[in-house]
Amino acid sequence: MSAANRVAKNTMILYGRMAITMFISLYATRLILAALGTTDFGIFNLVAGSITMLVFLNNALTGASQRFMSYYQGDGDIIKQKSVFVVSGVIHILVGVIIIILLEVAGIFLFNGFLDIPEGRVLAAKTIYQFLIISTFLNIVTVPYDALINSHENMLLVAILGILESLIKLSIAFSITVYSGDRLILYGALMALMAVLLASIRAIYCKKKYSEVNYSIKKYYSKPVFIEMLSFAGWNLVGTGARVLSIQGMAIVLNTFFGVIVNAAQGVANQITGQLMVFSNTMLKALNPVIAKSEGANNRELMLRATQTGSKLSFYLLAFFSIPIIIEMPAILNFWLKDVPEYAIDFCRLSLIVSAVRQISVTLPSAIGATGKIRGSKIAESVIIVMLLPLAYIMFKAGNTPEYIYYVLILVELLISASRVYYAYIFCGLNLKNYLLNNVFICVLIFSSTILLSAINIYSGNSEFIRIIIVFGISTVLLLAQVYVFGLNKTEKNQIKMLIIALKKKILKNTDK
User: Please, what is the angle between helix 56-75 and helix 78-109, to 10°?
Assistant: First the structure.
């Protein structure tokens, strides 16, 4: 099967999962917010954000594991693949232990005046903190299995696990709704149990399915592979760590100045953005192994073509769903939630704009990472992203309102995108003029024109329901028309037509059986 057909097949599988999980997840969030209340929901997001700040080590190593497994699959070296799995397992167990220690030490300071938690809820917050540590450790040690599944492009398993996770979360939401005790503590405990179950399934499946899974450290441990992965992960750590600390630090800065109510609004914004990002990230999950494998097979032309087309299509997918939601955010949040937290509407809108800016260059880190030359790009991203928190602190000290932190974040993401384009040009041979014209300029033009023309309808005087339908219809037609006319080049249009034909043949073939 060709790379294009594999991407198409895997993307269709993941979109099938997304269609099921998105609405389940949004409904589960509605139940959880109603059951916990705004204060406890804000506490959970605050504590979870505090833990995420300290797991950037794992995020850096995740990228290293996925890159090396896919790269050596493209290279065809099975011994190196087994070495990568063994080394990755060793590294993640060590990192998991280190992070547990760091989190336990950090907890002493977080719950002694650093976090603004209402009196009477500190014990509950400390308890869910421990449950979240358990979940975090399990997520860390199962990264090699996730990387292996993705490198084999087994998106059917990814889809099944995603659906299972959503159903479990929905069951948890119903459980805490009917529980008469401390719902926040029960929520944390059930989320930890879910992590145990999902980790076990991944480990058992990979052991039975993939030959790379081997626990013989003596036979397959490789010091050169360890050094190579650790070097790659070290520079990845610089960029990932700075991003996670800054983005998750937003929760603490907001909490310091405005309390847990604003953290609840941020939690809602994260849910909305996270679910909509699935539309574009779904395709990237299927595309990233192709980028790394192409570089491993010394096919730089295919790697760059997949990178540029993937960046463009992921942006269009996010724009397709986010534009009408940005316009009709008040009505949508009122329909979705019983009580909409203060600032949630502005946070959601601005968070989606931040995501749109990020999507313009979203595939470039994968391309740069595929070459192994990530030091410069990660240093540049780190320098830029660390500006977020001090600038936000200065603005809040000056008396500005909470949404200003997102304005700073938009500026930061623009600068990061510029740095990614520069380093992709230096290390990957990216055609700078072509990328700026056909990716950056076209994407911004299509997004801006669609949102401006679609927003006119909000002044029509129609009922809320009719207005939402009209906005969705207008934005869909405008976006698709512009994408088809000048959003895709001739080669990309032909590739999409060929993929559609291939998918139709596959569907008809399966129907005839």
Answer: 170
Nearest to 449 by CA among 418, 414, 405, 486: 486
Phi-psi region of 298 (alpha: psi -120 to 50; beta: other; left: phi over 0): left
Neighbouring C-beta atoms of residue 50, cutoff 10 Å: 24
Average pLDDT, the chain: 80
- Give 412-415's long-range contacts (Cβ < 8 A, gap of 24+): 412/246, 412/384, 412/385, 412/387, 412/388, 413/354, 413/357, 413/358, 414/357, 415/384
Please list the alpha-helical segments (H only) found in 110-180: 122-141, 143-151, 155-178
Kindly indicate the confidence band of residue 149, based on its pLDDT and cuts at 50, 70 and 90.
confident
Q: Note the pLDDT tens digit of each residue in 309-333.
A: 888 888 888 888 889 989 888 888 8
| Residue 363 contacts residue 304 (beta carbons within 8 Å) | no
Concatenated DSSP letters of 162-227: HHHHHHHHHHHHHHHHH--S-HHHHHHHHHHHHHHHHHHHHHHHHHHH-TT----HHHH--HHHHH
- Full-model pTM: 0.68
Q: pLDDT category, 505, cuts 50, 70, 90?
A: low
- Measured between alpha carbons, how far is 159 from 163 in angstroms, rounded to an integer? 6
In angstroms, rounded to a whole number, what is the distance separating the alpha carbons of residues 156 and 292? 20
Residue for token pair 């993929």:
499
Q: Say which residue the tokens 């997918």 belong to.
A: 317
Q: Tokens for 225, please give them.
A: 């592979």
The SS3 call for residue 319 is helix
| Chain position carrying tokens 């207008």 | 474
What contacts 152, CB < 8 A, 6 or more positions away? 73, 210
Token pair for 394: 């200065």
For residues 441 and 420, give the distance between their C-alpha atoms in angstroms, rounded to a whole number.
Answer: 16
Whether the predicted pLDDT of 503 surpasses 60: no
Q: How far is Cα 259 from Cα 251, in angstroms, rounded to an integer?
A: 10
Q: CA 237, CA 369: separation in Å to the nearest integer?
A: 13
